[in-house]
Amino acid sequence: MPSSTIRSISITVSDEDGAAAAAAPTRRPCGGRRKASARGLGQRAARLVARWWPVLLLLPAVALLLFEASRLRGSPRPPPRTPPASDGSTRPRASSVACASVNETVNVHCGFYSDNGGFKISEEDKRYMRTCKVVVSTCAFGGGDDLYQPIGMANSSFGRVCYAAFWDEVTLSTQEAEGKVIGDDGMIGRWRIIVVKSLPFVDQRLNGKIPKMLTHRLFPEARYSIWVDSKYQFRRDPIAVLEALLWRTNSTLAISEHGARSNIYDEGKAIVQKHKATPEEVEVQLTQYRQDGMPGEKRLHGLKALAEASIIVRELTPAPNHFMCAWFNEVVRFTSRDQLSFPYVLWRINMPGMSMFPVCSRRDLVNSLGHTRKVKPLTQTNPESSAS
């Protein structure tokens, strides 16, 4: 076909084809489409986070609470407190019974005797002792001291505090000879008189350490206790004393500082000089403490090393009970001079919640009336009882 003919050929395009061609979108490269899609997803995610961020924060907290709750439900319950032995002993009937569990593998024994052991208390007195929640206690064994009536109790404390005085039969007969007779309700004034039979030790000072240090064994339902040596008259409201010495200081055990000395080895010399123990007894005890590495510091764990120990205020919970059990074990093991063994126990047991108050505070709590007469030693103890 000639070229002129080719140049004259034309292509007719309809209006519908033109509109379709105009409406067809322009094809974009593949990479640009993916970027636009990603930007759209990011914007939607940001809008969702902005809208629901409180819920996103709450979900982890709820999950943590559920985890902790399930863990607590699976933890073992603490063992129940062991009730007093039915024979009236202040200690467990078997040597395997422990005073306070320190951890899963260590138990601290708190003194125990055979089934026929001593320190027997009547069932009536034991029933009374189980009713006490706050107790002020003292003891007079061997007839050495009179009974001084407490003063200064606030009206709000009446009916909330037990006053318990432990006597042996020697003290009972001595006081009755002076006209101080126990009433039908077991009381003399504000004191409930608890007569103890079959004292386990020949040393009356050592017998006195049982109510002094093992209050938690004698009063199984009590929460707080205040110990007062028998030479003192207690002259403050017990609840106010708990508030001042325990609650305000966030303490569980408060004891009076020693006013004259601060060093355990100086205390040993003073005990020998005052003939409160033999030189041989003191030397055996201090030699053992030296071998254990006991330092001669004046302060231990931030507290004065020596305590006067005539007033002890404590909460009857595991930590202070453990401390008192360990202290009792030392006076049974060595001399009955508890001021000599206190620094050792304080050093070995860095107990949280321990506090010490100065001599001026002790003098504010009590009137010092001194010992009335010489203590009569025991001539015979229960032959079937044996200290451990």
UniProtKB/TrEMBL annotation:
Q: Which InterPro entries match?
A: TOD1_MUCI70, TOD1_MUCI70_glycTrfase_dom
Q: Report TM segments.
A: 48-67
Pfam families named among the record's database cross-references: TOD1_MUCI70
Region listing for Disordered, in residue ranges: 17-37, 73-94
Pinpoint the TOD1/MUCI70 glycosyltransferase-like domain residues.
101-371
Q: Which UniProt keywords apply?
A: Membrane, Transmembrane, Transmembrane helix
Superkingdom, natural source: Eukaryota
Q: Per the record's keyword annotation, is 4Fe-4S included, yes or no?
A: no
Protein name per Swiss-Prot or TrEMBL: TOD1/MUCI70 glycosyltransferase-like domain-containing protein
Q: Which organism is it from?
A: Panicum miliaceum (Proso millet)
Q: What is the lineage of its organism?
A: Eukaryota, Viridiplantae, Streptophyta, Embryophyta, Tracheophyta
